[in-house]
Amino acid sequence: MQNNLLSGLKEHENKLLTIWSQLLIDGGSDDGAVEEEESKEFASLFLKAAAAAEGKIQDSQEFEKVEDLIVGIASSRGKRGFSPRENAQYLITFKEAASKILSELIKDPEQLFDANLQLNAALDNMTILTFEAFMRGREDIISRQVDEISEISTPVITVWEGVVALPIIGTLDSSRTQIVMENLLQQIVDTGSSIAILDISGVPAVDSLVAQHLIKTVSATRLMGAECIISGIRPEIAQTVVHLGIDLTGIITKASLASALKTAFDMLQLSVVKRKIV
Amino acid sequence: MKSRIMTTISNSKEEALIVKEQDVVPLRNRVKEYGVKIGMSILNQTKLITATSELVRNLLKYGGGGKVIIESVSNGRDNGVRVTFIDNGPGIANVELAMKDGYSTGKSLGLGLPGTKRLVNEFDIKTELGNGTTVTITKWKNG
Amino acid sequence: MERIPILKMGDFLLVTIQVDLYDQLAENLESDLINTISKHSSKGVLIDISAVSIIDSFMGRILGNIAVMSKIMDAQTVVVGMQPAVAITLVELGLSLNGVISALNVEKGMDLLRSKMQISDNEEQDYDDDIE
């Protein structure tokens, strides 16, 4: 088993912190990048793990805590606007500081080389972890925003007793179609509306996939016993639909929301008349 | 060294023997409970249970009954339910053909396998003539 | 053996499915319903599936069968109360339930059946050359 050559660092914790802070400041991250508390916590935990380890530091129980801590630090720094580069720099300077102290502590060149190898192995892996944590943080933000966008962009409006309308703004992909369908059908049930108008004026382009999603929505509405009218067919949409050979003949389509509403009134045997002034 | 690579891990698991049609409803309910436990939406629950219903019918009709494993799984990003259907029946001679819309050897509508595949996020079929068929489906909570 | 009750209301038959269907139960419903239509010469069948949480290809086929069979026996079938999740799942599955007429709820389903019957009554009156 390899001897643990890093245990000696523990006694020089304060010195290491001083060198590390200096290196961070020299490295240009002087604008608040040096978070005293978290740096102290990290250094002390790392050195504790280093002192406790019998063989390689990575194998010790304590090291998992260090890893968890650096992941936490990296994601919180990510949220505060630090770049992944700065996060990596944070660990690289720590390594530099530790390496400096090691060269003072260990005189035998061979031992010093081994000690540096151990230090490298431990910290390089942590650098990768900070990158992963940063990416995960970003992905969480993106997926939350996607959820928010799809929620706010699918309002269902009751336009008349028995008629609901859903204006779709933006691109229709399969996950959004599912939300649109769920919202629309649930509103149909809740309001007891027998006609739904799907307005696609705000959909930038209709390709065969979007058309397929629209057809699915219409089919599901009909299965429940309601009728679905698609309105807002712009001239260029009509052109693409025909050029792509998409069959929309089974679906009631209207150019504008107004004409869709008129069709809905006809189906409900309602008529709008101008009041006569006597 | 602790591995942080995202792999699907199984959290809880149970097995059910399916030998007769009356076993189907309790099985569907168990699968539903797994979906409810991880907070799956009604729609995704319905898709998962419908897929289960289709596959368990195949298991009874073509496989002569068999074993179903229900698992709660996660891949680090999302939680899901995985259901595995194992039978010792004759197997499927041509899987590619069976996965095409409109194909069926039985008297059902012939959209069993491809339709079922559309309802779930992951669909895997292993079959060998004379050695039975194993179908594994996974539905993610947000899938 | 478990059976789904069929209620007779005048010219109509009313079926409310309150339990989760399995294949045998659905098959029994099909034959019971067709026999009852024949026994009472019913003109309409209303099937309430609002409590049904799943319909797979087999049950979908049974619903289609019932619609077509009753049509041949001169009875109109209306399926009411399908849950949104069930409708979306059926569409994804590729099942369109051809021949099945649906309505949102029991009330609308009854209206639909009555209007269908009036149309066929009118047709008979037309035949007698006796309009209004």
TrEMBL record, chain A:
Q: What InterPro entries does this protein map onto?
A: Bact_StressResp_Reg, RsbRD_N_dom, STAS_dom, STAS_dom_sf
Superkingdom to which the source organism belongs? Bacteria
Q: Where is the STAS domain?
A: 153-264
What name does this protein carry? STAS domain-containing protein
Taxonomic source organism: Flavobacterium panici
CDD domains according to UniProt: STAS_RsbR_RsbS_like
**What keywords were assigned to this record?**
Phosphoprotein
The record's listing under Pfam families reads: RsbRD_N, STAS
DNA-binding keyword on record? no
UniProtKB/TrEMBL annotation, chain B:
InterPro entries, from UniProt? Answer: HATPase_C_sf, HATPase_dom
Read off the Gene3D superfamilies from this record.
Answer: Histidine kinase-like ATPase, C-terminal domain
Give one Pfam family, short name only: HATPase_c
Record domain Histidine kinase/HSP90-like ATPase: where = 43-143
Give the top-rank taxon of the lineage listed in the UniProt record for this protein: Bacteria
Q: What is this protein called?
A: Anti-sigma regulatory factor
From TrEMBL, chain C:
Where's the STAS domain? 2-113
Q: Which Pfam families match?
A: STAS (PF01740)
Q: Which SUPFAM superfamilies match?
A: SpoIIaa-like (SSF52091)
Domain of life according to the entry: Bacteria
UniProt cross-references to InterPro entries, sorted A to Z: Bact_StressResp_Reg, STAS_dom, STAS_dom_sf
Instruction: Identify this protein by name.
Output: STAS domain-containing protein
